[in-house]
Design a protein that fits this description.
Elements: E1 4-8, E2 11-14, H1 15-20, E3 24-29, H2 53-67, E4 74-75, E5 77-78, E6 85-87, E7 104-105, E8 109-112, E9 117-123, E10 127-133, E11 138-144, H3 146-150, H4 153-163, E12 172-175, E13 185-186, H5 188-197, E14 206-210, E15 213-216, H6 218-228, E16 236-238, E17 263-269
Parallel strand pairs: 4-9, 5-7, 6-8, 12-16
Antiparallel strand pairs: 1-2, 2-3, 3-17, 8-11, 9-17, 10-11, 10-12, 13-15, 14-15
Length: 276
């Protein structure tokens, strides 16, 4: 069953989680109904791509209103395709919400167990990973391109949560809209790295189609790594949405040859019933 449902032209939500856990907001933006122009048309949420700052802030404000989560409560990161994850608290609210300079540096994942904080990360093909441990009210996000994936950012989140007293069996993960296998081509250098971290996995998430060119299923690779980290099969849901194939909904760095905006993944517990 597809975990993402279009709630508004500006965003999809993880409907099952939001219905199960009152006060939770979790989802992914589209590229539609924003203020950005040209190659960023129209709902670009990324500050770092060269778009007009005022347009990006206006886009973020629109999403904030649509999901009913104040922009000043958001946190964002200067993502570096690594595996560093930051735990955030209320005191951190607003970092990276309205400009790039004040965002967390060198971070590709967030988690928190506090209310009134919206964790956000940007994407245009890489894999968004959404985490929740409802018994401990812990939520998290990770940004996993091939570098972050092979550096096992998914496992890093599970290990950090183990340190918080949360066993993998209590963690649920949704793998979100990102580039699919038929759209994602990598060379042998990347595949060699993948092989090293999947030595004990029989069915590999890639196949050769011509010399030094492979189709790689990044979503499946993350699913396999989550399973290796101890997350039960039934606790992992994977989208069918491809950022490249579904051109009407998403930006795609590869499809658009590097000239595109960014979608935003988000997850947070609402602080006040007035926002429900």
């Amino acid at each position: 069953m597809e975990p993402f449902v279009l709630q508004n032209p500006t965003h999809f939500v993880i409907e099952k989680w939001m219905s199960q856990f009152p006060g939770l907001v979790a989802g992914m933006t589209t590229k539609n109904e924003g203020f950005s122009k040209g190659e960023f048309k129209s709902l670009n949420l990324g500050f770092h791509v060269g778009d007009n700052l005022c347009d990006v802030v206006s886009n973020r404000q629109k999403v904030s209103e649509n999901i009913q989560f104040p922009l000043e409560y958001w946190v964002g990161a200067e993502q570096t395709h690594h595996h560093v994850i930051q735990k955030v608290k209320k005191v951190d609210r607003g970092k990276g919400a309205t400009n790039y300079e004040e965002s967390y540096k060198g971070i590709d994942g967030f988690y928190t167990d506090e209310t009134g904080i919206l964790l956000t990360l940007c994407y245009a093909d890489c894999v968004p990973l959404f985490f929740i441990a409802p018994m401990k009210r812990m939520i998290g996000l990770a940004h996993a391109g091939w570098k972050g994936t092979t550096k096992e950012i998914a496992k890093q989140m599970i290990e950090l949560w183990k340190g918080e007293g949360i066993p993998p069996e209590e963690i649920f993960v949704v793998i979100g809209p990102s580039i699919c296998k038929k759209c994602y081509i990598v060379n042998k250098y990347v595949i060699d790295i993948v092989q090293k971290i999947l030595v004990d996995v029989e069915k590999k998430p890639y196949n050769l189609f011509q010399e030094d060119q492979y189709f790689l299923d990044l979503r499946e690779l993350n699913r396999l790594l989550l399973r290796k980290a101890g997350v039960p099969e039934q606790n992992i849901a994977v989208t069918e949405y491809c950022s490249s194939c579904h051109e009407n909904e998403f930006f795609s760095h590869r499809r658009d040859k590097g000239k595109s905006g960014r979608m935003l993944s988000f997850i947070g517990w609402k602080e006040d019933s007035s926002y429900l």
